[in-house]
Amino acid sequence: MRREEDRTLAEADPVRGPGSSRTVQIVVLSEDILTAQGVEAHLTRDDRVLVLPPDTEERPDVVLVITGEVTDRTLTSMQRFSRDDPADNPLLMLVAEPPTAKQLVRVVAMGLVAFMPREGTTLADITDTLCVVTRGAASLPQPLLGSLLEQIRTRRWNDPAAEAGDGPRSFTSREIAVLRQLAAGFSTAEIAAELHYSERTVKYVIHEVIMRHGLRNRVHAVAYALKQGLL
């Protein structure tokens, strides 16, 4: 399993609870057939996982993309599973070389919840991360999250009218304080200590933000707040 310091915002959200007993449906996309078959065979050994074919017409819960460099072809293969309502997109896991800043924004919009560097990622890492994301959490390395946040800030400053949404008034001062700590990469325990709240209160605040705005997880909540100009 990856070291905890390499995981950002990776604690289970209260939205989905500690997990579900239902089967997780996953599609594995890779231009390397041997890689795809190996990962599929590994995942199939877990009776909680149902591997769907890449050309499935069903809506998977998770799409796992394994590639070297992220290219336009990679993005197109991911886009096939996107829905009109982003909230309906499957969870997207990406194993690849780090994407560019612009590519990162695109894949986050498609539902990215986990990134693993191609070099050094094992089958066990993929299984561990799948467990994390199906609990409603996310797994993004700190440098990648920093790049995402910078892209969102830059876009907002270049177009202040973009994605005005329902505005800052829809967030309380306590919610903003917690989201700022999340954006800095702190855990709920660290946020609780910093803001002098109980850890349960911090988790409740995050849960309320996610539910009220129809967001997917903590990463999405931070990105949404940045778009509103709150962070």
UniProtKB/TrEMBL annotation:
<keyword id="KW-0238">DNA-binding</keyword>
<feature type="region of interest" description="Disordered">
    <location>
        <begin position="1"/>
        <end position="20"/>
    </location>
</feature>
<dbReference type="InterPro" id="IPR016032">
    <property type="entry name" value="Sig_transdc_resp-reg_C-effctor"/>
</dbReference>
<protein>
    <submittedName>
        <fullName>LuxR C-terminal-related transcriptional regulator</fullName>
    </submittedName>
</protein>
<feature type="domain" description="HTH luxR-type">
    <location>
        <begin position="164"/>
        <end position="229"/>
    </location>
</feature>
<keyword id="KW-0805">Transcription regulation</keyword>
<feature type="compositionally biased region" description="Basic and acidic residues">
    <location>
        <begin position="1"/>
        <end position="14"/>
    </location>
</feature>
<dbReference type="Pfam" id="PF00196">
    <property type="entry name" value="GerE"/>
</dbReference>
<dbReference type="InterPro" id="IPR000792">
    <property type="entry name" value="Tscrpt_reg_LuxR_C"/>
</dbReference>
<keyword id="KW-0804">Transcription</keyword>
